[in-house]
Each structure stands twice: as structure tokens, then as C-alpha cells.
UniProtKB/TrEMBL annotation:
Protein name: TIR domain-containing protein
Transmembrane residue ranges: 25-47, 78-101, 130-151, 157-175, 182-198, 204-229
Signal peptide: none
Entry keyword Amino-acid biosynthesis: no
Superkingdom of origin organism: Eukaryota
Keywords: Membrane, Transmembrane, Transmembrane helix
Length: 636
């Protein structure tokens, strides 16, 4: 009643600013109060039914010793009032059960966010999928209220123990609470119920209670100090200074590269969030964005706008006023009005976000909001200088929604360096003078280049003590330096169709350089007969020096070595996993057992001879392409 009066007063005061009685807010408040005080309310209503039998056989109400438990007078009036009042807790239990078991699944499928927010008091404390525990909890509370009404001490104790044991078992099995530690705490608190039993040894019980009181007091003080310190720290600096919102297949490797570069910068004091490293529970994802993140960096790729989890992250950032910036890759296009209006057609599973409180309308509003965000536009070619320029811009720029006109930046490969290309080339060669390891990558594939840069950053410290083994990344149209002995080939989809890759591989084989293949994509497919046939058919148009059959021969030799998987864009590519693979690559580079490539043993010059030999047209290799593929698949 008090809550209803306060709500009506609140609505009356806000009449000019709000429409209607806001019944959903009232339902939420009343529901929370009933959940909290359910045992107290139901226990008070059932008080007339709890009678005590005196030695002389007379039965009186426990709470009211002067009222006899009979069907006459005052006791009869108490029973009538209690019977009418029971309608409230019984109705609440029935409605809560119906909403949780019947309506909630339907409304989640329909993405009815208004309904979900209204009845959130039933399930918001529990992890997704455990909403039914609210009904189980109400059943337990009903049992604890009804058992004291039953006559007979033995049966009461038996039923109470049974109810509590079943409650502990269900809690231990379901782990329903959203915070894992709460499940343990509930189990411990229920188990401590034995302390409330009457005991003959009063002194012993007093000592135990005193010890528990002191322990709980110290624990409360510790939690208070820890919480206050965390509050002060969060007020000035949140745990994650940057949150990288990205689509795995389009920018997974680039996200890893940005994190590697950001954490090396002096201006970055907090952590950089990448889901592979920092996310163990998907239900906490949006909480990290809304409450633990200072800046959200959206890595704009072609398909990021159609990924529901990415849009959920961006929507959460908008709702919680998290500073946001878009790093637009070459294939990114800002959301059009057509996409916004037809979003559910293009992304039908967006309605699944309703279970987390994000409606379709909120996502559509976010798409329009993204057009106004500050944007850093990247060119088509990626290198280490450009990556550092992006990170520097992210650190120094003031990121605030709606300031695209002021903060929009278009970077190019010359943006952060005024030296001409010739001077930069000289400086680069001086930096890696004497290097024995070169990384060959398809510069047309930005994710492959990002993989090469991450590989360089992670392997370099491991081989730094070995003279000349620090790898460098070859630029487009560049041959390997004279000192190079090992070519590390980043194998991405279609990389061997790049004429620059073909030319470098053939020239490296002519110099008898060794090779180490690195599988950089889950979708990479080992060359087949069709590939070799295509090489023969197009050899005359590639501009490759040497005989047309040489490229097919060299590619065959590349995969005679056991490749190493190094895929930063993988769904399980945590920093620990990449470090293990980087150690493997460093070991392979240093052990000196890689086999040199050669062109001298291959004299098949005509397409007819190659076609006649099919896949066996080259000299036998220690490991066939098929066997190598199986080994790599097993290692990945």
C-alpha cells in the first residue's frame, strides 16, 4: 500500500513529463518487495494457524497467548482475515509461475523488451536459462512457512531438513545465481541453519556465535573497504581502457595487432579488452562494455553491422555513454537508412538480444548513431607504421559521440612519416641489415598482413639473442635481402595467386633459401591438382621470371615442410595460445633443420609433361601435401 501511494505521488509529480500511470514500474517495485518479504508476509498471515498445546490440553495461538484456538469469537475472525489475506501471496506465486514458465520463453522469442523489463525482478538475479529457479525459490519459501503450521515436532524437523537439503542440492546442481560466488554463499548460509537449534550447552553455542559474529564483522569490513576502493578506482579509471569490438573473420588479426601495439604505448595505463583473452562468461560481455570500459573501438568491417553480438556491444556503449570511435577498414560502409529499416530482415536473430534487454528499436537507433561517431579511415595497405599511427591517434584524440566532424581522420601510409619512400626504404634496410629471416605475405590481404605483424612482434623477442634471426616483413615488389636464409610464408587464402608472392618464391628457390609455411587462416586450403593446373594455364601472364613450371614446383616444396598454425583471428586464439605457437615457430627457425628449396632438380618444362604426372610431377618429398594437411589439421 505504501509503495502504491509513493508511486502515485511520483506519477502525479511527473505528469508534465510522462504519459500514463507507468504501471510497469509499479509492477516491478511491488514484485521486488514481494520477493524480499515473501516469507515475512506469508508467515504473518499464517500466524492464526500456528497453535501451541499447553499441558492442560488447551491450545492457544503462539503469537497471541490469550486467544484460544477454537472456532468461536476472536479466533474465528482471525481465521477469516487470514484466509482473505492469503489471496495475496498465493496470487503472487501463481502469477510469478505463469510468467516465468509460460510467458517468458514466448516473449523472449518475440523480443518483447518492455515485458522483459517489467518482470525482470523474477529472473535478473539469475544467469540466462535459470529463470525457473525463481519459482523453485518461492516453492521453498512456501514450504518453510507452511511446515510450522503442521502439528508434531518430529514431522516439522523432518520436513524442514528435507526442504533445506533439496534446496542445497538444486542450488549446487543448477548454480542459478548470476554471480558464481553467490551460489557458494547460499549453500553455506543454509547449512548454518543448525546454529538456530536450541542446545543444552549454552556456553558452547555462545562461543561459536561470538566467533562467527567476529568473523562476519571482519568480513563485512573487508568487503566494505574493498568495495569502496574499487569504487574510487572505477570512478577515476575503469579496468579496461579500450574495448575492441570486431568481427572475427574480418578483423580478428587486426584486433590482436592493435592490442599488441596499444599495450606498448606509454599513454595506455589500463587493459585492452579482446574477447579471446578476457571473456570467459558470455553473459558478462555487455556488463564489461557498460561498466568496465572507458573507450569502445569499433573495427569497422564489411559484416560487423550484421553481427548481433557486435551490435549488442555498440548499443550497450551508446546507452551507457561510453566514448566510442570507429576504425574503418577499406571494406566498411556506414549503415544506410535502408539497412536500418530492414535490419530484422537482414539479421533475423537480432531478437535474441531481447533476453539481455536490447530491443530491435535500440539497435536501429544505434545504427543511426554510428554515422555520427568519430572515424579513423584506413587505406588498403597495412604496415607497422600505419598501425602505430592508428594507435597514437586513438590515444591522443578526444573521443566523444557526435564529434565526427572534428575527430574524423583519414590515414594513409604517409600520414605519420614525411620522409620519401626512398629514404624510408634505406632506413628500413639499415634497421634489418644482416637479417636472416624474411616474412613473405600477401599485401592484398589485410588480415594476413596483420597476422605477419603480430608474428613479428611475438617471435622477435624469442630470437633476439641469436644474431640476425629477428624477422622482417617484405614489402610489395621487394626481393629478399642478400643475407636472408629463411623465408617465412604466411599462407592465406589465394596468396599463391599473387604474382609478387610467386616471383619471390621462385627467386628464393633459385637462391636455395629454406622455407617455413605458416597457416594464417582456418579457411586456408592446401594446393590441389586444380591449383597446379591453373598455375600452368596462367603462367604466361604472371610476369614471373623463369620457367612456367617453376612456381608449381616451388609451392610443392613449400608444403614439404610441416607448417605451423598461427591464426590470431581464430575464435580460441588467446594470447597464451599464440605465445605457445610463437615459441614453436622460434624453435623451428633456430634449430636449423629446414630444407632448402631448389630449382635445379626440376626439368619438367612443358604443360604436357606436368599434366601427365598429375600430382606426382615432382620429386618425392618427405611429406606429401595430403599428409601435411592432416598433420596441420591435427595440430590446429
Amino acid at each position: 500500500m505504501v509503495a502504491c501511494c509513493i508511486h502515485l505521488l511520483y506519477v502525479a509529480l511527473r505528469k508534465k513529463f510522462a504519459d500514463g500511470l507507468e504501471i510497469s514500474v509499479l509492477v516491478k517495485v511491488m514484485g521486488n518487495l514481494m520477493i524480499i518479504f515473501f516469507i515475512s508476509v506469508a508467515g504473518a498471515i499464517l500466524a492464526p494457524f500456528r497453535c501451541y498445546t499447553h499441558p492442560n490440553g488447551i491450545r492457544t495461538v503462539q503469537e497471541f497467548g490469550g486467544v484460544l484456538c477454537n472456532s468461536d469469537g476472536e479466533y474465528q475472525k482471525m481465521l477469516i482475515v487470514a484466509g482473505i489475506a492469503l489471496i495475496m501471496p498465493v496470487s503472487f506465486f501463481v502469477i510469478a509461475s505463469y510468467v516465468t514458465i509460460v510467458e517468458l520463453p514466448k516473449r523472449m522469442q518475440k523480443a518483447d523488451v518492455a515485458f522483459l523489463k517489467t518482470w525482470s525482478f523474477l529472473y535478473y538475479r539469475y544467469r540466462p536459462g535459470a529463470a525457473v529457479f525463481s519459482v523453485i525459490l518461492l516453492l521453498r519459501n512456501i514450504g518453510l512457512v507452511i511446515v510450522p503450521v503442521i502439528p508434531g515436532g518430529a514431522i516439522k524437523v523432518l520436513l524442514i531438513v528435507l526442504i533445506l537439503v533439496v534446496s542445497i542440492l538444486i542450488t549446487s546442481f543448477m548454480l542459478p545465481w548470476r554471480i558464481l560466488e553467490c551460489n557458494y554463499m547460499v549453500t553455506v548460509l543454509i547449512s548454518m541453519g543448525a546454529l538456530f537449534m536450541a542446545d543444552v550447552d549454552v556456553d558452547y553455542v555462545m562461543q561459536v556465535c561470538l566467533a562467527l559474529f567476529i568473523a562476519m564483522f571482519l568480513l563485512i569490513c573487508h568487503v566494505f573497504v574493498w568495495g569502496f576502493a574499487k569504487y574510487l578506482r572505477a570512478k577515476h579509471r575503469k579496468p579496461f581502457q579500450y574495448f575492441l569490438c570486431h568481427q572475427k573473420s574480418g578483423a580478428g588479426a587486426f584486433a590482436r595487432l592493435l592490442k599488441c601495439e596499444l599495450i606498448r604505448m606509454n599513454g595506455v595505463k589500463g587493459k585492452v579488452f579482446v574477447d579471446c583473452d578476457d571473456l570467459q562468461d558470455l553473459t558478462k560481455l555487455f556488463g564489461y562494455v557498460g561498466f568496465d570500459t572507458e573507450h569502445l573501438i569499433i573495427l569497422g568491417t564489411k559484416d560487423i553491422l550484421t553481427r548481433k553480438w557486435c551490435m549488442g556491444e555498440v548499443t550497450t556503449a551508446r546507452i551507457h555513454n561510453v566514448k566510442t570511435v570507429v576504425v574503418a577498414l577499406p571494406d566498411y560502409e556506414p549503415p544506410s537508412e535502408t539497412l536500418v529499416e530492414e535490419y530484422q530482415v537482414h539479421v533475423p536473430d537480432v531478437t535474441e538480444l531481447a533476453a539481455l534487454g536490447i530491443s530491435l528499436a535500440a539497435v536501429q537507433e544505434t545504427l543511426r548513431w554510428m554515422r555520427e561517431l568519430p572515424t579513423i579511415e584506413l587505406p588498403g595497405t597495412l604496415d607497422s607504421r600505419l598501425t602505430r599511427a592508428v594507435c597514437k591517434k586513438l590515444v591522443v584524440m578526444h573521443v566523444s559521440p557526435g564529434s565526427m566532424g572534428k575527430n574524423g581522420v583519414q590515414l594513409s601510409n604517409d600520414a605519420e612519416d614525411e620522409l620519401d619512400k626512398g629514404t624510408r626504404s634505406v632506413n628500413r634496410k639499415a634497421q634489418y641489415n644482416g637479417s636472416k629471416v624474411a616474412i613473405l605475405v600477401d599485401y592484398k590481404n589485410m588480415e594476413a598482413v596483420a597476422t605477419a605483424l603480430v608474428l613479428q612482434l611475438m617471435v622477435s623477442p624469442l630470437v633476439l639473442s641469436s644474431g640476425g634471426m629477428v624477422p622482417y616483413i617484405m614489402t610489395a615488389n621487394e626481393e629478399a635481402m642478400p643475407t636472408v636464409q629463411i623465408i617465412v610464408v604466411i599462407c592465406s587464402q589465394g596468396c599463391f595467386g599473387n604474382p609478387d608472392i610467386a616471383r619471390v618464391l621462385v627467386s628464393s628457390a633459385a637462391r636455395s633459401l629454406t622455407v617455413l609455411p605458416i597457416i594464417a587462416e582456418d579457411g586456408f586450403r592446401f594446393p590441389t591438382k586444380d591449383f597446379y593446373d591453373e598455375v600452368l594455364a596462367t603462367a604466361g601472364t604472371t610476369g614471373m621470371l623463369g620457367k612456367p613450371s617453376h612456381l608449381a614446383a616451388v609451392v610443392k616444396q613449400v608444403f614439404s615442410e610441416i607448417a605451423v598454425g598461427f591464426n590470431p583471428q581464430g575464435y580460441s586464439a588467446s594470447v597464451q595460445d599464440l605465445e605457445v605457437r610463437a615459441n614453436t615457430i622460434a624453435f623451428r627457425l633456430l634449430e636449423g633443420k629446414l630444407k632448402p628449396m631448389s630449382l635445379e632438380d626440376y626439368h619438367l618444362t612443358s604443360p604436357e609433361e606436368l599434366e601427365a604426372n598429375s600430382l606426382g610431377l615432382f620429386l618425392p618429398a618427405p611429406n606429401s601435401t595430403e599428409a601435411n594437411a592432416k598433420m596441420i589439421s591435427a595440430s590446429l
